[in-house]
Amino acid sequence: MQLKRLDWLIVLFPLFLTWGIDQVTKGYAEGIRGLQFFGPFGFVLHHNHGAMLGLFSDLPAVLRIVTLSTGGAFLIFSFAIIQYLLPIKSLMLRTGMSVLLGGILGNVTDRIINGYVIDFLLLGSPENATPAFNMADALQWVGYAMIAVALIRESEILWPADNTRKRMWINVRFQLRYCFILTGVGLGFALIAGVFSYTFLRVTIIDLVGNNEKLLDHYLMPFVLTFIVVSMTFAAVLFLVGRVLSSRIAGPLYAFEKFLDDLVAGKPRVLRLRAGDEFKHLEIIAARLSQQFIERELLKSQAEAAKLADEASRAARQNEEAARGGDAPTELPSNVMPLKRSTERP
Nearest to residue 140, comparing CAs of 108, 92, 104? Predict the structure, then answer.
């Protein structure tokens, strides 16, 4: 499903809007002093050095910041891949993903710049309040809700009940080769980036503080562990992406082969590919072939009918001549019904 320029604007604008609202409100939150409640809504300034609601706060600072910051970049990549692979327009689903990503990036931006996330919103009362959160956290739940509603409302489009191609592995050999090539290329780039980053970080640390092995291990080991985890996750995602993309290539070719087999067997039918498949023009080619087959069969049937009618007429004339001359009547072909004369007067 190809989105128009206006559709992409509708999809991507909420991402930047969500991120902007989060950053602006956090700027105002820096001025909050003490605990303030206005009805069920409370405000308090809190610096969260972990992730949402304090998760990952026990990890070393370097590993925590690098992991979560890199995770934000990985989410942008995943967002772009999912937007590309979605087979339907579904503006609500796509917009919900944008709102969700905008909220996540709002917190990631805090972590990159400050090393912590600014939380300032509370719900409840001074005696019984929720943990502090921010607008990014709140808007993420809006994104989750939009995604859930879209999946429920458009589930029949995403997973049609009459979809006859149930398997993702159609041509296993071709698809596995495709997946491994894509994954290998991704890991190759990851290896190049890893060697460059590791070397740059090591040389920088030595240049600043000297060749201190304890300090090098303190900074480099978390970096290596994080990079390996991110690279393996990236490779797994690439393999899954290759599986989907190769299915969109192998599936239409397989379906077209089955269509040709049916056509040769004298069973013309309509070829329908899945949403998002490549080679959609095969549907047009299949329709033309079916139409030509039907027209050829129709002409053939008309010719056979004309031939039978001609044989019947010729046999009837011979019978009339034989009846007048006393000869035996000419036998009609086995597939021709004899003509009956009406005995009734008009």
Answer: 104
